[in-house]
Amino acid sequence: MQNSQRRRPAILVQLADLFLIQLSNWRWSWRSALIVGTAAPLGSIVALGIFARSAGPEALAYVLTGNMVLSLMFENLDKVCSNFSYMREVGTLNYFATLPIQRCMLVLATVLAFLTLSLPSLLVTLCLGSMILGVSLAPHPVILLVIPLAAIPLSGIGALIGTSTRNPQEASSISLLATLVLLGLGPVIVPPSRLPGIMLTLGRLSPATYAASALRQALPGPLTPRLWLDMAVLAGLSVVIFWLVGLKMDWRQQ
């Protein structure tokens, strides 16, 4: 085991190589990712925007940033779930387990690859959504940290589902259910004043709540001290979820 540890490339080399492998495997899907990742959020923005206009600018900001979270779910949670479920089904994870790499680097590289592929759809959702809703944007540089922190725990949930389910069909069903539940719990698309107390309480357990809150502060603004709490919770949830994925993933190298 000590010899195998010495033969392992450096952490950053592992991450870069695995990132390029995953990115090259899915490079052909960026067009479909752009369509799927924007169609549902933009449709939701148009539909919900009709009702949110009478509630004022705050409600419109919730609709915009909540649907950006929806875009992240479609292109990160769902896609990462499908990827890990497929790799588990066809034995690709067994192949990766024979390489001198750490399992956490495979998870992180996969998450970063799908995040990269999801950025065009996220940008289109933001730009067109703000135009449709009439929401003024004042992006703060902290958005460069908020977007990956919002996407990583959602992707981690996808990886956890993909490595825990029995087949891709089951993974797809549970992934869709998780997307709907996370989106409905807490003030993600709907302002907290319009939600019952039980949903607000349960929403504190959802990374989507903190992701939407951080995006609202970093894009329409203004920044508040709550942003640092949101980012800390998202980072903490990422660590916990990645640890759970590592426990569930079949891996020959221990």
How do the helices and strands line up, and which of them pair or pack?
Layout (H helix, E strand, L loop, with lengths): L1 H6 L3 H15 L4 H23 L4 H34 L1 H6 L5 H31 L9 H22 L3 H17 L12 H7 L3 H12 L7 H23 L6
Helix pairs in contact: 2-6, 3-4, 3-6, 4-6, 4-7, 4-8, 4-10, 6-7, 6-11, 7-8, 7-10, 7-11, 10-11
Walk me through what this model shows.
The chain has 254 residues and is mostly helical. It has one domain (2-248). It is built from eleven helices and no strands. Helix 2 crosses helix 6 (103-133), helix 3 runs antiparallel to helix 4 and helix 4 (57-90) runs antiparallel to helix 8. The model is unreliable at 1-5 (pLDDT under 50).
Question: What overall form do the CA principal axes indicate?
Answer: elongated
N-end to C-end Cα span: 9 Å
Discrete helix count: 11
Unreliable runs? 1-5
User: Would you count the extended β strands for me?
Assistant: 0
Average pLDDT reading: 87
The main sheet comes to: none
What is the string of helix and strand elements?
A: HHHHHHHHHHH
How many domains in all?
Answer: 1
User: How much helicity do the residues have?
Assistant: over 70%
List keywords for this structure.
77% helix; 11 helices; disordered N terminus; elongated; mainly alpha; 0% strand; 254 residues
Short précis:
The chain has helices at residues 2-7, 11-25, 30-52, 57-90, 92-97, 103-133, 143-164, 168-184, 197-203, 207-218, 226-248.
